[in-house]
Write a structure and sequence with these properties.
The protein is mainly alpha-helical and about 290 residues long. The protein has helices at about 1-30, 35-60, 60-65, 75-95, 105-110, 115-145, 150-165, 165-185, 190-210, 225-250, 275-294. The chain is about 75% helix and about 0% strand. The chain is globular, with a radius of gyration of 19 Å. GO terms for molecular function: endopeptidase activity.
Length: about 290
Protein backbone atom coordinates (compact mmCIF):
# COMPACT_ATOMS: atom_id res chain seq x y z
CA UNK A 1 0.00 0.00 0.00
CA UNK A 2 2.83 2.41 0.87
CA UNK A 3 4.50 1.71 -2.48
CA UNK A 4 1.29 2.58 -4.36
CA UNK A 5 0.82 5.69 -2.25
CA UNK A 6 4.36 6.85 -3.06
CA UNK A 7 3.60 6.30 -6.74
CA UNK A 8 0.39 8.26 -6.38
CA UNK A 9 2.15 11.20 -4.76
CA UNK A 10 4.82 11.18 -7.45
CA UNK A 11 1.96 11.65 -9.89
CA UNK A 12 0.57 14.40 -7.63
CA UNK A 13 3.89 16.26 -7.66
CA UNK A 14 4.26 16.03 -11.43
CA UNK A 15 0.64 16.98 -12.07
CA UNK A 16 0.88 19.85 -9.61
CA UNK A 17 4.03 21.24 -11.23
CA UNK A 18 3.16 20.72 -14.89
CA UNK A 19 -0.62 20.91 -14.71
CA UNK A 20 -0.78 24.10 -12.67
CA UNK A 21 1.72 25.80 -15.00
CA UNK A 22 -0.10 24.83 -18.18
CA UNK A 23 -3.56 25.54 -16.78
CA UNK A 24 -2.39 28.86 -15.35
CA UNK A 25 -1.09 29.98 -18.73
CA UNK A 26 -4.31 28.82 -20.37
CA UNK A 27 -6.61 30.61 -17.93
CA UNK A 28 -4.69 33.89 -17.71
CA UNK A 29 -2.99 34.28 -21.09
CA UNK A 30 -5.30 32.43 -23.46
CA UNK A 31 -8.71 32.93 -21.85
CA UNK A 32 -7.68 36.30 -20.36
CA UNK A 33 -9.48 35.65 -17.08
CA UNK A 34 -8.92 38.00 -14.14
CA UNK A 35 -6.19 36.67 -11.86
CA UNK A 36 -8.61 36.27 -8.94
CA UNK A 37 -10.97 34.08 -10.93
CA UNK A 38 -8.10 32.21 -12.59
CA UNK A 39 -6.57 31.30 -9.22
CA UNK A 40 -9.91 30.02 -7.94
CA UNK A 41 -10.58 27.90 -11.03
CA UNK A 42 -6.99 26.66 -11.11
CA UNK A 43 -7.21 25.09 -7.66
CA UNK A 44 -10.43 23.29 -8.59
CA UNK A 45 -8.85 21.97 -11.79
CA UNK A 46 -5.67 20.82 -10.06
CA UNK A 47 -6.95 19.28 -6.83
CA UNK A 48 -10.28 17.69 -7.75
CA UNK A 49 -8.84 15.34 -10.42
CA UNK A 50 -6.10 14.21 -8.01
CA UNK A 51 -8.65 13.40 -5.30
CA UNK A 52 -10.98 11.60 -7.71
CA UNK A 53 -8.11 9.53 -9.11
CA UNK A 54 -7.14 8.33 -5.63
CA UNK A 55 -10.69 7.28 -4.74
CA UNK A 56 -11.20 5.52 -8.08
CA UNK A 57 -7.86 3.71 -8.20
CA UNK A 58 -7.99 2.58 -4.56
CA UNK A 59 -11.74 1.81 -4.74
CA UNK A 60 -12.33 3.26 -1.29
CA UNK A 61 -15.27 4.85 0.47
CA UNK A 62 -15.16 8.63 0.19
CA UNK A 63 -16.36 8.98 3.78
CA UNK A 64 -13.73 6.64 5.19
CA UNK A 65 -10.88 7.86 2.99
CA UNK A 66 -11.39 11.52 3.81
CA UNK A 67 -12.60 11.07 7.42
CA UNK A 68 -15.83 12.91 6.67
CA UNK A 69 -17.22 12.76 10.18
CA UNK A 70 -18.68 15.56 12.31
CA UNK A 71 -16.47 17.38 14.81
CA UNK A 72 -18.03 18.47 18.10
CA UNK A 73 -17.68 22.10 19.09
CA UNK A 74 -15.32 21.47 22.03
CA UNK A 75 -12.83 19.67 19.82
CA UNK A 76 -13.23 22.38 17.20
CA UNK A 77 -12.29 25.07 19.73
CA UNK A 78 -9.34 23.03 20.99
CA UNK A 79 -8.02 22.49 17.46
CA UNK A 80 -8.36 26.18 16.65
CA UNK A 81 -6.65 27.15 19.91
CA UNK A 82 -3.75 24.77 19.32
CA UNK A 83 -3.25 26.16 15.82
CA UNK A 84 -3.31 29.75 17.07
CA UNK A 85 -0.79 29.01 19.84
CA UNK A 86 1.49 27.33 17.30
CA UNK A 87 1.80 30.53 15.24
CA UNK A 88 4.81 31.96 17.15
CA UNK A 89 6.70 28.71 16.53
CA UNK A 90 5.97 29.00 12.82
CA UNK A 91 7.29 32.56 12.95
CA UNK A 92 10.43 31.28 14.66
CA UNK A 93 11.08 28.89 11.76
CA UNK A 94 10.62 31.79 9.33
CA UNK A 95 13.08 33.94 11.29
CA UNK A 96 15.68 31.16 11.57
CA UNK A 97 15.54 30.46 7.83
CA UNK A 98 15.41 34.12 6.75
CA UNK A 99 19.20 34.35 6.21
CA UNK A 100 18.87 31.54 3.66
CA UNK A 101 15.60 32.53 2.07
CA UNK A 102 13.25 35.55 2.13
CA UNK A 103 9.71 35.18 3.43
CA UNK A 104 8.04 33.76 0.32
CA UNK A 105 4.59 33.85 1.91
CA UNK A 106 4.83 37.62 2.33
CA UNK A 107 5.97 37.93 -1.28
CA UNK A 108 3.02 35.85 -2.48
CA UNK A 109 0.63 37.93 -0.39
CA UNK A 110 2.11 41.08 -1.88
CA UNK A 111 1.34 39.83 -5.38
CA UNK A 112 -2.32 39.49 -4.39
CA UNK A 113 -2.62 42.89 -2.73
CA UNK A 114 -4.76 44.20 -5.59
CA UNK A 115 -7.31 41.45 -4.97
CA UNK A 116 -10.32 41.91 -2.72
CA UNK A 117 -10.18 40.49 0.79
CA UNK A 118 -12.91 37.99 -0.14
CA UNK A 119 -10.92 36.72 -3.12
CA UNK A 120 -7.74 36.45 -1.08
CA UNK A 121 -9.51 34.56 1.69
CA UNK A 122 -11.09 32.15 -0.76
CA UNK A 123 -7.84 31.45 -2.65
CA UNK A 124 -5.45 31.45 0.30
CA UNK A 125 -7.60 30.20 3.19
CA UNK A 126 -10.76 28.40 2.06
CA UNK A 127 -9.54 26.36 -0.90
CA UNK A 128 -6.22 25.19 0.62
CA UNK A 129 -7.96 24.31 3.89
CA UNK A 130 -10.37 22.07 1.99
CA UNK A 131 -8.30 20.66 -0.87
CA UNK A 132 -4.94 20.25 0.90
CA UNK A 133 -6.55 18.61 3.90
CA UNK A 134 -8.52 16.19 1.74
CA UNK A 135 -5.30 15.31 -0.08
CA UNK A 136 -2.87 15.04 2.83
CA UNK A 137 -4.95 14.34 5.94
CA UNK A 138 -7.36 12.35 3.80
CA UNK A 139 -5.71 10.45 0.95
CA UNK A 140 -2.18 10.43 2.41
CA UNK A 141 -3.21 9.22 5.87
CA UNK A 142 -5.42 6.60 4.25
CA UNK A 143 -2.74 5.49 1.81
CA UNK A 144 -0.02 5.14 4.44
CA UNK A 145 -2.29 3.64 7.11
CA UNK A 146 -0.76 0.17 6.67
CA UNK A 147 2.50 1.56 8.09
CA UNK A 148 0.81 2.31 11.40
CA UNK A 149 -0.52 5.56 12.81
CA UNK A 150 2.83 7.18 13.64
CA UNK A 151 4.51 6.48 10.32
CA UNK A 152 1.36 7.45 8.43
CA UNK A 153 1.37 10.76 10.30
CA UNK A 154 5.02 11.43 9.47
CA UNK A 155 4.71 10.44 5.81
CA UNK A 156 1.62 12.58 5.26
CA UNK A 157 3.37 15.53 6.93
CA UNK A 158 6.49 14.98 4.81
CA UNK A 159 4.53 14.91 1.54
CA UNK A 160 2.64 18.03 2.63
CA UNK A 161 5.92 19.77 3.42
CA UNK A 162 7.67 18.88 0.16
CA UNK A 163 4.72 19.90 -2.02
CA UNK A 164 5.25 23.50 -0.84
CA UNK A 165 8.42 23.39 -2.95
CA UNK A 166 10.61 25.66 -0.83
CA UNK A 167 12.70 24.97 2.26
CA UNK A 168 11.23 27.64 4.52
CA UNK A 169 7.60 26.67 4.02
CA UNK A 170 8.47 22.97 4.04
CA UNK A 171 9.90 23.18 7.56
CA UNK A 172 6.84 24.71 9.18
CA UNK A 173 4.47 22.82 6.88
CA UNK A 174 5.96 19.59 8.24
CA UNK A 175 5.31 20.78 11.80
CA UNK A 176 1.75 21.83 11.01
CA UNK A 177 1.16 18.74 8.90
CA UNK A 178 2.14 16.51 11.82
CA UNK A 179 -0.13 18.43 14.20
CA UNK A 180 -3.04 18.36 11.75
CA UNK A 181 -2.61 14.64 11.08
CA UNK A 182 -2.47 13.91 14.80
CA UNK A 183 -5.70 15.82 15.40
CA UNK A 184 -7.45 13.99 12.55
CA UNK A 185 -6.24 10.63 13.85
CA UNK A 186 -7.44 11.34 17.37
CA UNK A 187 -10.82 12.85 16.45
CA UNK A 188 -11.50 10.79 13.33
CA UNK A 189 -12.68 13.95 11.57
CA UNK A 190 -11.05 15.85 8.70
CA UNK A 191 -12.60 19.03 10.08
CA UNK A 192 -10.10 18.86 12.95
CA UNK A 193 -7.46 19.93 10.42
CA UNK A 194 -9.56 21.97 8.00
CA UNK A 195 -10.59 24.50 10.65
CA UNK A 196 -7.09 25.30 12.01
CA UNK A 197 -5.65 25.29 8.48
CA UNK A 198 -8.24 27.89 7.50
CA UNK A 199 -7.56 29.94 10.63
CA UNK A 200 -3.79 30.13 10.08
CA UNK A 201 -4.08 31.07 6.41
CA UNK A 202 -6.90 33.53 7.07
CA UNK A 203 -4.93 35.33 9.78
CA UNK A 204 -1.95 35.68 7.43
CA UNK A 205 -4.27 36.95 4.73
CA UNK A 206 -5.96 39.55 6.94
CA UNK A 207 -2.60 40.68 8.35
CA UNK A 208 -1.24 41.18 4.83
CA UNK A 209 -4.21 43.28 3.70
CA UNK A 210 -4.23 45.34 6.91
CA UNK A 211 -0.54 46.21 6.71
CA UNK A 212 0.19 49.84 5.90
CA UNK A 213 3.39 51.23 4.38
CA UNK A 214 4.28 52.72 7.78
CA UNK A 215 4.26 49.24 9.27
CA UNK A 216 7.09 48.23 6.96
CA UNK A 217 9.48 49.55 9.62
CA UNK A 218 9.41 46.08 11.19
CA UNK A 219 11.46 44.90 8.24
CA UNK A 220 14.34 47.02 9.55
CA UNK A 221 14.68 44.90 12.69
CA UNK A 222 17.96 43.04 12.85
CA UNK A 223 18.06 39.27 12.80
CA UNK A 224 18.91 39.23 16.52
CA UNK A 225 16.01 41.54 17.38
CA UNK A 226 13.57 39.43 15.38
CA UNK A 227 14.92 36.27 17.00
CA UNK A 228 14.53 37.67 20.52
CA UNK A 229 11.07 39.07 19.83
CA UNK A 230 9.80 35.84 18.31
CA UNK A 231 11.47 33.77 21.03
CA UNK A 232 9.64 35.80 23.67
CA UNK A 233 6.34 35.15 21.89
CA UNK A 234 7.12 31.42 21.87
CA UNK A 235 7.77 31.47 25.63
CA UNK A 236 4.50 33.30 26.26
CA UNK A 237 2.42 30.97 24.10
CA UNK A 238 4.11 27.71 25.15
CA UNK A 239 2.13 27.20 28.42
CA UNK A 240 -1.15 27.83 26.60
CA UNK A 241 -0.17 25.41 23.84
CA UNK A 242 0.75 22.76 26.42
CA UNK A 243 -2.54 23.25 28.27
CA UNK A 244 -4.62 22.98 25.10
CA UNK A 245 -2.73 19.87 24.02
CA UNK A 246 -3.35 18.33 27.45
CA UNK A 247 -7.08 19.07 27.23
CA UNK A 248 -7.18 17.72 23.67
CA UNK A 249 -5.49 14.47 24.71
CA UNK A 250 -7.89 14.05 27.62
CA UNK A 251 -10.87 14.41 25.32
CA UNK A 252 -9.38 12.21 22.59
CA UNK A 253 -7.33 9.45 24.26
CA UNK A 254 -7.57 6.78 21.59
CA UNK A 255 -6.44 6.76 17.93
CA UNK A 256 -9.15 7.10 15.31
CA UNK A 257 -10.47 3.66 14.33
CA UNK A 258 -9.67 4.25 10.65
CA UNK A 259 -5.95 4.07 11.44
CA UNK A 260 -4.69 0.85 13.05
CA UNK A 261 -2.20 0.89 15.88
CA UNK A 262 1.45 0.44 14.96
CA UNK A 263 2.43 -3.23 14.59
CA UNK A 264 5.55 -5.10 13.60
CA UNK A 265 3.75 -6.70 10.64
CA UNK A 266 3.44 -6.22 7.82
CA UNK A 267 6.72 -4.44 7.27
CA UNK A 268 6.42 -2.38 4.13
CA UNK A 269 9.20 -0.62 2.31
CA UNK A 270 8.65 3.12 2.68
CA UNK A 271 11.61 4.53 0.79
CA UNK A 272 10.82 3.31 -2.71
CA UNK A 273 12.07 4.69 -6.03
CA UNK A 274 8.99 6.93 -6.27
CA UNK A 275 9.76 8.41 -2.86
CA UNK A 276 13.34 9.28 -3.80
CA UNK A 277 12.20 10.84 -7.08
CA UNK A 278 9.83 13.08 -5.08
CA UNK A 279 12.71 14.06 -2.77
CA UNK A 280 14.90 14.84 -5.80
CA UNK A 281 12.15 16.98 -7.34
CA UNK A 282 11.79 18.90 -4.08
CA UNK A 283 15.54 19.50 -3.76
CA UNK A 284 16.27 20.45 -7.37
CA UNK A 285 13.14 22.51 -8.04
CA UNK A 286 12.17 23.71 -4.58
CA UNK A 287 15.30 24.12 -2.49
CA UNK A 288 18.35 24.73 -4.67
CA UNK A 289 16.88 27.43 -6.97
CA UNK A 290 15.64 29.51 -4.03
CA UNK A 291 18.93 29.24 -2.18
CA UNK A 292 20.87 30.13 -5.33
CA UNK A 293 18.70 33.15 -6.20
CA UNK A 294 18.88 34.43 -2.65
Amino acid sequence: MARRTNQYFLFVFLFFMLGSTILGLLLINFLALPSDLANIILQFLVFIPMLVIYVKTEKVSVKECFSLRPLNWKNALLCLGIAYCALPFISMIVVLTSPLQPNLVEQAMGELNDSSLFSMLFVIAVQPAVFEELLFRGAALHGYRSLGAKKALLMSALMFAMLHMNLQQALYAFLLGAIFAFMVQRTGSIFASMLPHFLINALNCVAATAQTPQQGVVEELSFTQELLSTGLQCLIFLPFLALLMYLFLRRNPAPAPALPADTDTPKEKIFTASFWIIVAIFIFFGVLPNLYWN
